[in-house]
Write a structure and sequence with these properties.
It holds the Pfam family DSBA. The chain is an alpha+beta fold. 48% of the residues lie in helices and 10% in strands. The protein is built from nine helices and six strands, in the order βαβαααααααββαββ. The two termini are 42 Å apart.
Protein backbone atom coordinates (compact mmCIF):
# COMPACT_ATOMS: atom_id res chain seq x y z
CA UNK A 1 0.00 0.00 0.00
CA UNK A 2 1.45 3.34 -1.02
CA UNK A 3 1.07 6.59 0.93
CA UNK A 4 2.37 9.71 -0.79
CA UNK A 5 2.90 12.87 1.25
CA UNK A 6 3.32 16.41 -0.06
CA UNK A 7 5.09 18.64 2.43
CA UNK A 8 7.66 21.37 2.93
CA UNK A 9 10.71 21.22 5.20
CA UNK A 10 9.83 24.53 6.87
CA UNK A 11 6.10 23.87 7.27
CA UNK A 12 5.44 23.53 11.02
CA UNK A 13 2.31 21.45 10.61
CA UNK A 14 4.12 19.15 8.15
CA UNK A 15 6.47 17.98 10.89
CA UNK A 16 3.56 17.63 13.33
CA UNK A 17 1.59 15.72 10.69
CA UNK A 18 4.57 13.47 10.05
CA UNK A 19 4.66 12.49 13.72
CA UNK A 20 0.91 11.93 13.93
CA UNK A 21 0.97 9.73 10.83
CA UNK A 22 3.99 7.82 12.13
CA UNK A 23 2.22 7.20 15.44
CA UNK A 24 -0.72 5.71 13.58
CA UNK A 25 1.55 3.66 11.32
CA UNK A 26 3.48 2.30 14.32
CA UNK A 27 0.31 0.58 15.59
CA UNK A 28 -0.91 -0.54 12.15
CA UNK A 29 -0.78 -4.34 11.87
CA UNK A 30 0.32 -4.20 8.24
CA UNK A 31 2.87 -1.39 8.56
CA UNK A 32 5.55 -3.48 6.83
CA UNK A 33 3.40 -3.42 3.69
CA UNK A 34 3.15 0.37 3.60
CA UNK A 35 5.43 2.34 1.28
CA UNK A 36 5.76 6.02 2.23
CA UNK A 37 6.88 8.43 -0.51
CA UNK A 38 7.64 12.10 0.19
CA UNK A 39 6.89 14.70 -2.47
CA UNK A 40 8.28 18.22 -2.63
CA UNK A 41 6.02 21.20 -2.01
CA UNK A 42 7.39 24.69 -1.39
CA UNK A 43 5.12 27.02 0.50
CA UNK A 44 6.98 30.00 -0.96
CA UNK A 45 9.19 29.04 -3.93
CA UNK A 46 10.22 32.65 -4.49
CA UNK A 47 11.22 33.38 -0.90
CA UNK A 48 14.56 35.14 -0.53
CA UNK A 49 15.73 35.38 3.09
CA UNK A 50 16.95 38.70 4.41
CA UNK A 51 20.26 38.31 6.29
CA UNK A 52 19.75 38.72 10.03
CA UNK A 53 15.96 38.64 9.82
CA UNK A 54 14.30 36.33 12.35
CA UNK A 55 11.52 33.89 11.58
CA UNK A 56 9.16 36.08 13.62
CA UNK A 57 10.05 39.12 11.52
CA UNK A 58 9.79 37.21 8.24
CA UNK A 59 6.37 35.84 9.21
CA UNK A 60 5.16 39.26 10.33
CA UNK A 61 6.16 40.73 6.99
CA UNK A 62 4.47 37.93 5.05
CA UNK A 63 1.23 38.03 7.06
CA UNK A 64 1.10 41.82 7.44
CA UNK A 65 1.00 41.63 11.22
CA UNK A 66 3.20 42.86 14.07
CA UNK A 67 6.22 40.89 15.24
CA UNK A 68 4.46 40.23 18.55
CA UNK A 69 1.49 38.75 16.70
CA UNK A 70 3.87 36.58 14.71
CA UNK A 71 5.45 35.39 17.98
CA UNK A 72 2.00 34.44 19.25
CA UNK A 73 1.40 32.41 16.09
CA UNK A 74 4.67 30.63 16.72
CA UNK A 75 3.72 29.96 20.33
CA UNK A 76 0.46 28.34 19.24
CA UNK A 77 2.27 26.01 16.83
CA UNK A 78 4.97 25.28 19.40
CA UNK A 79 2.30 24.07 21.81
CA UNK A 80 0.77 21.82 19.13
CA UNK A 81 4.21 20.38 18.32
CA UNK A 82 4.93 19.64 21.98
CA UNK A 83 1.86 17.40 22.09
CA UNK A 84 3.62 14.99 19.72
CA UNK A 85 7.03 15.28 21.37
CA UNK A 86 8.54 17.97 19.13
CA UNK A 87 10.12 20.97 20.84
CA UNK A 88 10.11 23.79 18.33
CA UNK A 89 12.38 26.78 18.91
CA UNK A 90 11.26 29.62 16.66
CA UNK A 91 13.75 31.98 18.29
CA UNK A 92 16.54 29.96 16.68
CA UNK A 93 15.02 28.97 13.33
CA UNK A 94 16.64 30.54 10.27
CA UNK A 95 14.35 31.58 7.40
CA UNK A 96 15.33 29.70 4.24
CA UNK A 97 14.30 28.87 0.71
CA UNK A 98 13.88 25.08 0.65
CA UNK A 99 14.59 24.35 -3.03
CA UNK A 100 18.02 22.85 -2.30
CA UNK A 101 16.71 20.95 0.71
CA UNK A 102 14.04 19.28 -1.42
CA UNK A 103 16.70 18.27 -3.93
CA UNK A 104 18.63 16.64 -1.10
CA UNK A 105 15.52 14.64 -0.15
CA UNK A 106 15.31 13.36 -3.73
CA UNK A 107 18.96 12.36 -3.56
CA UNK A 108 18.19 10.57 -0.31
CA UNK A 109 15.35 8.72 -2.04
CA UNK A 110 17.76 7.62 -4.78
CA UNK A 111 19.79 5.87 -2.08
CA UNK A 112 16.84 4.52 -0.10
CA UNK A 113 17.26 7.18 2.61
CA UNK A 114 14.36 9.49 1.80
CA UNK A 115 12.54 9.37 5.13
CA UNK A 116 15.77 9.66 7.12
CA UNK A 117 16.79 12.70 5.06
CA UNK A 118 13.38 14.33 5.48
CA UNK A 119 13.44 13.77 9.22
CA UNK A 120 16.99 15.09 9.59
CA UNK A 121 16.19 18.30 7.72
CA UNK A 122 13.04 19.01 9.70
CA UNK A 123 14.79 18.39 12.99
CA UNK A 124 17.70 20.59 11.93
CA UNK A 125 15.37 23.46 11.08
CA UNK A 126 12.82 23.30 13.89
CA UNK A 127 14.78 21.87 16.79
CA UNK A 128 18.37 22.93 16.17
CA UNK A 129 18.25 26.29 14.37
CA UNK A 130 20.31 25.14 11.39
CA UNK A 131 20.15 26.85 7.99
CA UNK A 132 18.53 24.34 5.60
CA UNK A 133 19.02 26.73 2.70
CA UNK A 134 22.80 26.65 2.99
CA UNK A 135 24.72 24.25 0.73
CA UNK A 136 27.41 23.23 3.20
CA UNK A 137 24.86 22.74 5.97
CA UNK A 138 22.92 20.41 3.67
CA UNK A 139 26.10 18.50 2.84
CA UNK A 140 26.71 17.96 6.54
CA UNK A 141 23.13 16.94 7.29
CA UNK A 142 23.00 14.55 4.35
CA UNK A 143 26.25 12.93 5.43
CA UNK A 144 24.76 12.38 8.88
CA UNK A 145 22.12 10.08 7.39
CA UNK A 146 24.62 8.09 5.36
CA UNK A 147 24.82 9.97 2.07
CA UNK A 148 28.17 10.73 0.46
CA UNK A 149 29.26 14.32 1.09
CA UNK A 150 30.99 14.71 -2.27
CA UNK A 151 27.97 13.38 -4.14
CA UNK A 152 25.67 15.71 -2.22
CA UNK A 153 27.77 18.77 -2.99
CA UNK A 154 28.09 17.93 -6.68
CA UNK A 155 24.41 17.02 -7.08
CA UNK A 156 23.16 20.20 -5.41
CA UNK A 157 25.58 22.45 -7.25
CA UNK A 158 24.58 20.90 -10.59
CA UNK A 159 20.86 20.93 -9.77
CA UNK A 160 20.59 17.23 -10.61
CA UNK A 161 17.27 16.90 -8.80
CA UNK A 162 15.88 20.36 -9.53
CA UNK A 163 13.49 19.03 -12.17
CA UNK A 164 12.31 16.29 -9.81
CA UNK A 165 11.31 18.96 -7.29
CA UNK A 166 9.50 20.97 -9.96
CA UNK A 167 7.71 17.84 -11.21
CA UNK A 168 6.48 17.09 -7.69
CA UNK A 169 5.13 20.60 -7.39
CA UNK A 170 3.48 20.44 -10.81
CA UNK A 171 1.80 17.14 -9.95
CA UNK A 172 0.57 18.60 -6.66
CA UNK A 173 -1.09 21.38 -8.63
CA UNK A 174 -2.78 18.81 -10.87
CA UNK A 175 -4.48 17.15 -7.91
CA UNK A 176 -5.41 20.51 -6.42
CA UNK A 177 -3.14 20.50 -3.39
CA UNK A 178 -3.51 23.94 -1.80
CA UNK A 179 -1.97 23.27 1.58
CA UNK A 180 0.37 20.83 3.24
CA UNK A 181 0.80 18.29 4.65
CA UNK A 182 -1.31 16.43 2.13
CA UNK A 183 -1.53 12.63 2.26
CA UNK A 184 -2.67 10.47 -0.66
CA UNK A 185 -3.47 6.81 -0.05
CA UNK A 186 -3.28 4.44 -3.01
CA UNK A 187 -4.00 7.30 -5.47
CA UNK A 188 -7.62 7.34 -4.30
CA UNK A 189 -8.11 8.73 -0.80
CA UNK A 190 -6.62 11.97 0.50
CA UNK A 191 -6.17 13.52 3.94
CA UNK A 192 -5.29 17.19 4.23
CA UNK A 193 -3.54 18.65 7.26
CA UNK A 194 -1.99 17.38 10.48
CA UNK A 195 -4.98 15.27 11.47
CA UNK A 196 -5.19 13.23 14.69
CA UNK A 197 -3.38 9.89 14.69
CA UNK A 198 -6.74 8.18 15.21
CA UNK A 199 -7.97 9.46 11.87
CA UNK A 200 -4.82 8.29 10.09
CA UNK A 201 -5.30 4.88 11.73
CA UNK A 202 -8.87 4.67 10.42
CA UNK A 203 -7.80 5.58 6.90
CA UNK A 204 -4.96 3.05 6.93
CA UNK A 205 -7.38 0.30 7.92
CA UNK A 206 -10.00 1.33 5.37
CA UNK A 207 -7.57 1.60 2.50
CA UNK A 208 -5.81 -1.64 3.36
CA UNK A 209 -9.10 -3.54 3.54
CA UNK A 210 -10.07 -2.18 0.15
CA UNK A 211 -6.76 -2.59 -1.62
CA UNK A 212 -5.06 -5.41 0.29
CA UNK A 213 -3.07 -7.71 -1.99
CA UNK A 214 -4.79 -10.89 -3.03
CA UNK A 215 -3.42 -13.93 -1.24
CA UNK A 216 -1.28 -15.75 -3.78
CA UNK A 217 -2.14 -19.31 -4.72
CA UNK A 218 0.31 -21.86 -3.30
CA UNK A 219 2.96 -23.13 -5.67
CA UNK A 220 2.29 -26.78 -6.57
CA UNK A 221 5.43 -28.79 -5.87
CA UNK A 222 3.92 -32.29 -6.03
CA UNK A 223 0.83 -33.78 -7.70
CA UNK A 224 -0.76 -37.14 -6.89
CA UNK A 225 -4.07 -38.97 -6.41
CA UNK A 226 -6.79 -36.65 -5.12
CA UNK A 227 -10.56 -36.07 -5.13
CA UNK A 228 -12.44 -33.17 -6.69
CA UNK A 229 -16.03 -32.16 -7.57
CA UNK A 230 -16.07 -34.63 -10.43
CA UNK A 231 -14.79 -37.55 -8.35
CA UNK A 232 -11.44 -39.05 -7.48
CA UNK A 233 -8.46 -39.65 -9.70
Amino acid sequence: MKVEICSDVVCPFCYIGKRKFENALKDFAHRDEVEVVWHSFQLDPNFQPTPGESTHEALAKKKGVSTDEARNMGAYVTKAAAEVGLHYDFDRTIPANTFLAHQLIHLGAHHGRQDATKERLMAAYYLEGQNVGDLETLVKLGAEVGLDATEIREALKAGMYANAVRLDEYQAQQINVRGVPFFVFEDKYAVSGAQPSELFAEVLEKVYDEFKPAKPAPVLVADGPACGPEGCD
